[in-house]
Amino acid sequence: MSARVEQRALPGIGVCQDVVTRKGRRIGVLTHRDGHRELVVYDVDDPDAASDTIPLNSDEANALAELLGAPQLVRHLAELQQQVVGVLTEQLPILDGSRFAGRALGDTQARTRTGASIVAVLRQGEVIASPGPSFVFNPGDMMVVVGTREGIDGVAGILRGEED
Protein backbone atom coordinates (compact mmCIF):
# COMPACT_ATOMS: atom_id res chain seq x y z
CA MET A 1 0.00 0.00 0.00
CA SER A 2 1.39 3.42 -0.93
CA ALA A 3 1.55 6.22 1.57
CA ARG A 4 -0.85 9.11 1.31
CA VAL A 5 0.45 12.59 1.87
CA GLU A 6 -1.86 14.66 4.05
CA GLN A 7 -1.68 18.39 3.76
CA ARG A 8 -3.08 21.05 6.01
CA ALA A 9 -2.94 24.82 6.01
CA LEU A 10 -1.66 26.46 9.17
CA PRO A 11 -3.14 29.96 9.06
CA GLY A 12 -0.49 32.61 9.50
CA ILE A 13 2.28 29.99 9.42
CA GLY A 14 2.24 28.05 6.15
CA VAL A 15 1.47 24.54 4.94
CA CYS A 16 2.34 21.22 6.57
CA GLN A 17 2.53 18.00 4.57
CA ASP A 18 2.66 14.77 6.58
CA VAL A 19 2.98 11.07 5.94
CA VAL A 20 2.54 8.14 8.32
CA THR A 21 5.08 5.36 7.85
CA ARG A 22 4.23 1.66 7.76
CA LYS A 23 5.33 1.40 11.38
CA GLY A 24 3.03 4.24 12.43
CA ARG A 25 5.59 7.04 12.73
CA ARG A 26 4.45 10.41 11.45
CA ILE A 27 6.88 12.76 9.71
CA GLY A 28 6.29 15.91 7.74
CA VAL A 29 7.57 19.04 6.08
CA LEU A 30 6.40 22.43 7.27
CA THR A 31 6.73 25.09 4.60
CA HIS A 32 6.46 28.54 6.15
CA ARG A 33 4.86 31.45 4.33
CA ASP A 34 8.30 33.02 3.87
CA GLY A 35 9.48 29.86 2.07
CA HIS A 36 11.75 28.29 4.66
CA ARG A 37 11.11 24.65 5.52
CA GLU A 38 11.39 22.40 8.52
CA LEU A 39 11.48 18.63 8.65
CA VAL A 40 9.11 17.59 11.47
CA VAL A 41 9.32 14.31 13.38
CA TYR A 42 6.22 13.77 15.49
CA ASP A 43 6.17 12.33 18.98
CA VAL A 44 5.40 8.60 19.21
CA ASP A 45 3.02 9.03 22.16
CA ASP A 46 1.36 12.26 20.95
CA PRO A 47 1.14 12.30 17.14
CA ASP A 48 0.02 15.95 17.21
CA ALA A 49 3.21 17.10 18.97
CA ALA A 50 6.60 17.42 17.31
CA SER A 51 9.41 15.56 19.03
CA ASP A 52 11.96 17.30 16.80
CA THR A 53 12.19 19.83 13.99
CA ILE A 54 15.11 20.33 11.66
CA PRO A 55 15.29 23.68 9.84
CA LEU A 56 16.26 23.30 6.16
CA ASN A 57 17.47 25.97 3.76
CA SER A 58 16.47 25.67 0.08
CA ASP A 59 19.59 23.76 -0.91
CA GLU A 60 19.15 21.29 1.96
CA ALA A 61 15.45 20.81 1.20
CA ASN A 62 16.21 20.21 -2.48
CA ALA A 63 19.04 17.79 -1.63
CA LEU A 64 16.77 15.84 0.72
CA ALA A 65 14.03 15.75 -1.92
CA GLU A 66 16.52 14.41 -4.48
CA LEU A 67 17.72 11.76 -2.01
CA LEU A 68 14.12 10.68 -1.52
CA GLY A 69 13.46 10.70 -5.27
CA ALA A 70 11.06 13.65 -5.53
CA PRO A 71 10.67 14.63 -9.17
CA GLN A 72 11.12 18.28 -10.15
CA LEU A 73 7.51 18.60 -11.34
CA VAL A 74 6.05 17.60 -7.99
CA ARG A 75 8.34 20.03 -6.20
CA HIS A 76 7.37 22.83 -8.59
CA LEU A 77 3.67 22.13 -8.03
CA ALA A 78 4.20 22.26 -4.27
CA GLU A 79 5.90 25.65 -4.59
CA LEU A 80 3.12 26.92 -6.84
CA GLN A 81 0.51 25.70 -4.38
CA GLN A 82 1.90 28.05 -1.73
CA GLN A 83 1.04 30.97 -3.99
CA VAL A 84 -2.54 29.95 -4.85
CA VAL A 85 -4.93 29.88 -1.91
CA GLY A 86 -7.50 27.06 -1.99
CA VAL A 87 -5.68 24.93 -4.57
CA LEU A 88 -3.99 21.79 -3.26
CA THR A 89 -1.67 19.18 -4.73
CA GLU A 90 -1.73 15.57 -3.55
CA GLN A 91 -0.37 12.27 -4.70
CA LEU A 92 -2.86 9.42 -4.91
CA PRO A 93 -1.82 5.82 -5.65
CA ILE A 94 -3.18 3.25 -8.06
CA LEU A 95 -3.05 0.24 -5.75
CA ASP A 96 -2.75 -3.42 -6.70
CA GLY A 97 -6.27 -4.62 -7.36
CA SER A 98 -7.58 -1.13 -8.17
CA ARG A 99 -10.38 -1.18 -10.70
CA PHE A 100 -8.39 1.46 -12.63
CA ALA A 101 -5.18 -0.59 -12.91
CA GLY A 102 -4.86 -1.41 -16.61
CA ARG A 103 -7.50 1.15 -17.55
CA ALA A 104 -7.27 4.57 -19.17
CA LEU A 105 -7.22 7.83 -17.23
CA GLY A 106 -10.33 8.90 -19.15
CA ASP A 107 -12.25 6.02 -17.58
CA THR A 108 -12.03 7.77 -14.19
CA GLN A 109 -13.81 10.88 -15.52
CA ALA A 110 -12.07 12.53 -12.57
CA ARG A 111 -12.00 16.08 -13.91
CA THR A 112 -15.61 16.02 -15.09
CA ARG A 113 -16.87 14.47 -11.87
CA THR A 114 -14.74 16.38 -9.34
CA GLY A 115 -13.16 19.42 -11.01
CA ALA A 116 -9.72 18.15 -9.92
CA SER A 117 -7.04 17.51 -12.54
CA ILE A 118 -4.55 14.67 -12.81
CA VAL A 119 -1.54 16.67 -13.96
CA ALA A 120 1.15 13.98 -13.83
CA VAL A 121 1.77 10.34 -13.04
CA LEU A 122 4.86 9.08 -11.24
CA ARG A 123 5.88 5.64 -12.46
CA GLN A 124 9.00 3.84 -11.24
CA GLY A 125 10.93 7.07 -10.69
CA GLU A 126 9.80 8.65 -13.97
CA VAL A 127 7.40 11.56 -14.37
CA ILE A 128 4.73 11.41 -17.05
CA ALA A 129 3.55 15.02 -17.30
CA SER A 130 0.09 15.93 -18.58
CA PRO A 131 -1.16 12.39 -19.29
CA GLY A 132 -4.01 12.33 -21.81
CA PRO A 133 -7.31 10.46 -21.45
CA SER A 134 -5.88 7.39 -23.22
CA PHE A 135 -3.01 7.05 -20.71
CA VAL A 136 -3.24 3.58 -19.08
CA PHE A 137 -2.56 3.23 -15.34
CA ASN A 138 -0.35 0.52 -13.85
CA PRO A 139 -0.53 -0.71 -10.27
CA GLY A 140 1.96 1.34 -8.26
CA ASP A 141 1.47 4.51 -10.32
CA MET A 142 1.16 7.66 -8.24
CA MET A 143 -1.17 10.31 -9.65
CA VAL A 144 -0.40 13.96 -8.98
CA VAL A 145 -3.80 15.60 -8.51
CA VAL A 146 -4.43 19.35 -8.34
CA GLY A 147 -7.72 20.81 -7.11
CA THR A 148 -9.74 21.86 -4.11
CA ARG A 149 -9.88 19.71 -0.98
CA GLU A 150 -13.30 18.46 -2.08
CA GLY A 151 -12.10 17.70 -5.60
CA ILE A 152 -9.06 15.73 -4.44
CA ASP A 153 -11.17 13.82 -1.92
CA GLY A 154 -13.58 13.09 -4.78
CA VAL A 155 -10.78 11.61 -6.92
CA ALA A 156 -9.67 9.51 -3.93
CA GLY A 157 -13.26 8.30 -3.60
CA ILE A 158 -13.40 7.37 -7.28
CA LEU A 159 -10.20 5.35 -6.87
CA ARG A 160 -11.69 3.54 -3.87
CA GLY A 161 -14.85 2.79 -5.84
CA GLU A 162 -17.03 5.03 -3.65
CA GLU A 163 -18.10 7.35 -6.47
CA ASP A 164 -20.08 5.61 -9.18
UniProtKB/TrEMBL annotation:
<dbReference type="GO" id="GO:0006813">
    <property type="term" value="P:potassium ion transport"/>
</dbReference>
<dbReference type="InterPro" id="IPR058776">
    <property type="entry name" value="KhtT-like_N"/>
</dbReference>
<dbReference type="InterPro" id="IPR036721">
    <property type="entry name" value="RCK_C_sf"/>
</dbReference>
<feature type="domain" description="RCK C-terminal">
    <location>
        <begin position="75"/>
        <end position="161"/>
    </location>
</feature>
<dbReference type="Pfam" id="PF25991">
    <property type="entry name" value="KhtT_N"/>
</dbReference>
<dbReference type="InterPro" id="IPR026278">
    <property type="entry name" value="KhtT"/>
</dbReference>
<dbReference type="GO" id="GO:0008324">
    <property type="term" value="F:monoatomic cation transmembrane transporter activity"/>
</dbReference>
<dbReference type="InterPro" id="IPR006037">
    <property type="entry name" value="RCK_C"/>
</dbReference>
<protein>
    <submittedName>
        <fullName>Cation:proton antiporter regulatory subunit</fullName>
    </submittedName>
</protein>
<dbReference type="InterPro" id="IPR050144">
    <property type="entry name" value="AAE_transporter"/>
</dbReference>
<dbReference type="Pfam" id="PF02080">
    <property type="entry name" value="TrkA_C"/>
</dbReference>
